[in-house]
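Summary for the steering committee. The consortium agreed at its last meeting that each partner would contribute one worked example illustrating the joint modelling workflow. Our contribution is presented below. We chose a case with several input lines so that the handling of multiple components could be demonstrated. No manual editing was applied between input and output; the record is shown as generated.
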Amino acid sequence: MKKRSSGFFILAGFFMLFVLFLYGPTITIAILSFQGPGGGLTFPMQGTSLHWFRQLFAKQAVGDFGAALVRSLMLGTMVMITTLVFSLLAGMAFRKRFTGSSVIFYLALASLIIPSILISLGIGLMFDRMDLTPQWFSSGFGSHLTWTLPFGLLIMFAVFNRFNPAYEMASADLGASDWQTFRFILLPLLAPSLLGVALFGFTLSYDEFARTLMTSGSFNTLPLELFAMTTNVTTPVLYALGTLTTLVSLACILITIILVRLLRRSLTKTA
Amino acid sequence: MTTLINKKNVASYWQSFPLTLVLCLFLVFPIIVIGIVSFWDYNEYSIIPAFILDNYEFLLTSSVTWQAYLKTFEYAFLTLLLTLGIGFTVAYFLAFHIRSSAMQTILFLLCTVPFLTSNIIRMISWIPLLGRNGLVNSGLQSVGLIDQPLEFLLYSDFAIILAYVHLYTLFMVTPIFNSMMRIDHSLVEAAIDAGASPFQILKDVIIPLSKSGIIIGSIFVFTLVMGDFVTVKIMGGGIRANVAILIYNEISLLQYPAAAAGAMILLITVIMMLVILFRLVDIRKEL
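What follows is the complete predicted structure of the assembly.
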């Protein structure tokens, strides 16, 4: 393995094709969303303009896109905070075996694996039977948590597996209370990973479609709006919406990466 | 380590309580409700509490169901095969051919970014490429390889499988990469010293040692494809149907008991396949 073999170049080429396959289509629609007013869904470009982005914000053109965006952002934030707190707590709980721990673990795993349409149907029916109106902030919120919490838990497992408990023991030996140990030792050390959990929680909720189908009530979230558009919108306004939401996701990822780096730096400085 | 842990053992119960509560409220109870409603009766306006087997009887005797299951398994099998091939190759490249761990992390993150953006957008982004007047067709026509646009590219089984591979290969790369990173490189060196060919190393050292990652990835891809209706609806152009599409259509028609029966059968099918896969790996040990 010391010298670059011909195998390396073949595999590197394969990897590059894979990355192109992953990003290529999205980049294509990003370019096409800047079509001129006369442009269609495919190349060639009929001039360039921001026409389709303006159309997006003109309310009568494509449903109530602005309100759907706001709802998705609010739901994403609620899900993010809940996922962060609940996964951290559960991650700490799972550091030791306790009665029922494997039941909870397999439930979380089931939550991840069970088809989304089942969760959506089940929660929708449950609310219907209890005479509750499904709302994005109640039934929708719950259905998103069944998707984000297992991811959060799995990340916390990975984090705690690599976590050295010596720091906590040292802190306890020096007379710190459990709360002090948590606040001044555990939390700062875990902060970068917790940001990762938050990022997952937010973006998974922000993009979730299938679990929102029967649980969002009468107001659409953004993915539902998008899904409706795929069947009845045949203009590049669809691409403009796609480009815009992708940019929001990318912004979240970038902000998280920057925050993680800043946190790591301040940690090494104080250490 | 044990003293610290035993002292705080009680804490585990309240710490895991919020997670448990959410899972009971929004996972366990809803599934019980589906189970109950699947035996209910319904008419055009409402669902009626009862205990009838009609929903299941109709479901299991309908040829539409069987065809949909056949189609679903076909999608799942083909997707599994393709994602496994691509995912393994990508993970192998990252784990064994990239030397610096910083570079490994960067390239791996590059693969994960698309996973964090909307599936629906990633699907519609194939339209300008595969459509009748899309890039692929116009490209092939301009070089003279074809004189009519290829119709099978979009709104077809081909488009569905392509979208699955696009969406889910990452679910294969991540666990396989994870288990490959734990393989001790001295084992590979030893195999080289003992005169093994690159193919033998792959077959007798690397594949057996990354088995758990392969199985975990397969579990993810399989269950995602089995329960999917969005991809089939968008990429199949509304004329293809798998199991989840049948359930989705019944939901749209407010035939909830029928949808619930379909959902129970789907759940049982997925669980049966998972039991087989889980036999091959202890997932808790792998985390």
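Chain B touches chain A through 89 residues (CB under 8 Å). Chain B has one domain: 63-285.
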